[in-house]
Amino acid sequence: MSGEVIGLPTLMSYLEEAIAEFPDRRTGDNTQYSLRDSALAAFSVFFTQSPSFLSHQQSMHKSKGSSNATTIFGIEKIPTDNWIRTLLDPVPSSSVSGVFRRVFEQLEAQGSLDTYRAFDDTLLVALDGTWFHSSESVNCEHCNRQTHSDGRTTYYHSAITPVLVRAGSNQVFSLEPEFIEPQDGATKQDCENAAAKRWLTGAGLYYAERGITILGDDLYCNEPMCRLLLENNYNFILTCKYSSHSYLADWIEHCDAKTDLHEKVVKRWDGKRRLFYRYRFAHGVPIKDGEQALRINWMELAIFDAEGKRHARHVFATNHHLTGENIIAYIDAARARWKIENEHNNTLKTKGYNLEHNFGHGKENLSNLLLTFNLLAFLFHSLLESFDTRYRLIRQTLPRRDRFFHDLKALTQYFLFDSWEALLRFMLDGLDLEDPGG
User: Fold this and answer.
1) What's the pTM value of the predicted model, to 2 decimals?
2) What is residue 269's three-state secondary structure?
3) Does residue 197 sit within a domain?
4) Under 8 Å CB-to-CB from 29, ≥6 apart: which residues?
């Protein structure tokens, strides 16, 4: 991905602009630490993937008169963990949402999104829900509840985490989340579908203006959701399981195959055997029973071996017009939806970001705000890997993510660096790599 350098100082300036607008409820004794320092301190923990980062920097400041918390993240006075939680709890997570948009605007302005545009000049945005906190004791008014058969209750937080994806690339970029939580005045618990609709009719409208194709699993493939997408100028490609769309499945089975179905077969070698990829598509298929049912375009990929045994089948609904020339590209785009699970949510849960760890629950907004900081940390690292040549070379040399962050933690614990750039230069020198410049 080409474009101007988007370094950590630039990204941190976006975050500081948002922090400057945080509501500040400090009074009396709790004014000893600034809200700015508390927010930057919380973010630094997620960015370094080091829960003990701040304690190490406090020790470094005592011995050296400064710390990496100051030189890299701009923290003037490191707050304690308790003060961070206390000062940040009143801050709505939406206060940080503008940072995602600033990043998007920067990518758009320098033309870096051009390579992410797919067919019909659209960007692919995958939606999915994920848990990020659960407990049988710690809870707040924003928690959802799951009652078990044995009488236990699990309190949990979850969110829709939209992600900009591209077929054929493992690089994804986070967009602002939408939280799945009880809404004011609602008598029912919130759900993923309702939260997705809020994002689509709220924050998502900014992106819809730029041409978006929404990717989603079968949960989203229903008539109300599809109509809402069309009404708000989105395109869509949604997983469409036969098990939950019996009328559609029956329509496909009994339609006139010669006039209604179009087919294309491609032979591929997977390194061990020859496989046959059968692409089929049809236009104007009713998504459910009824004369007024919404008509969608249907597409399917079935993979067979040389003996005719089917190994996989993927079915999707879309509003895009399908042809023999573009069907493979549309199917590839549809399958890119899995990147939100593999390259985003799973990475956040298992690759050091500790998405499901309880960093602090609070009584108001803390849990949601910290989740947003975590998403921003992931986004910042994704951007640095794409645009910062020093960072990218180091990551390519240390391909294991855990090795990179292990080194980052160790170096910032024992050495004081004048800047983020100085840290990267030190790592390059230690790896005997020539400095490629910014």
Assistant:
1) 0.91
2) strand
3) no
4) none
